[in-house]
Every structure is written in structure tokens, then in C-alpha cells.
Amino acid sequence: MSLFNKKIPDLPEIPEEEQNPLLKKILEICSFQKEQLSLQNETIQALKDEISRLKGEKPKPDGFVKSPNSVLRCILRFFKVH
Fold it and tell me: Nearest to residue 67, comparing CAs of 79, 77, 78, 53?
């Protein structure tokens, strides 16, 4: 299994009364990084799919190929272009 196909683990639920300011900041950073990593993985897969399509290669065995527009949307979302 590729590193990009692994599920990103969920953050543990820690009761509010057990959280100090440092832990809250760490959990916030971890949550942000998880979101960014997920978006990056989606972008990487979309770009790989587009490269395969441009090379004229067959789609992945599951048959899922993103359209060029979805690749563009993914890139724009990644770079937050409006």
C-alpha cells in the first residue's frame, strides 16, 4: 500500500477539562496539518490521474479517473485561488 493511500488517523478525544493551553494549540496544529495533508494527497492523486490521461494510459483498475476540470478545481482549492 502506498503512503498516499493510508488513512490519516483521527485525533484522540480529550475532555475539555484535561486540556491545557499547550495541548489545545498542539491539537489545533495537528487538525490543520491533517486537513492540509488530506488535500495534498487528493491533489497528488488528481495530478497523477491527469498525467496518466495525457499519456493515453488506461485508467486505474477501479475505473475512477478525474476530469480535467476536477483536477483544476483541486489545484485552485489547494492554492486558495478564487
Answer: 53
pLDDT at 82: 47
pLDDT of residue 11: 77
**By the 8 A CB rule, do 40 and 75 touch?**
no
- Produce one character per residue of 30-66: b if its CB has 16 or more CB atoms within 10 Å, e if not: eeeeeeeeeeebbbebbeebbeebeeeeeeeeeeeeb
Instruction: Provide DSSP, 18-41.
Output: G--HHHHHHHHHHHHHHHHHHHHH
Mark the ranges of the chain whose per-residue pLDDT is less than 50.
Answer: 1, 63, 82
**CA-CA distance, 49 to 63, in Å (whole number)?**
11
The interaxial angle of helices 21-54 and 68-78, nearest 10 deg, is 150
Tell me the whole-structure pTM to 2 decimals.
0.56
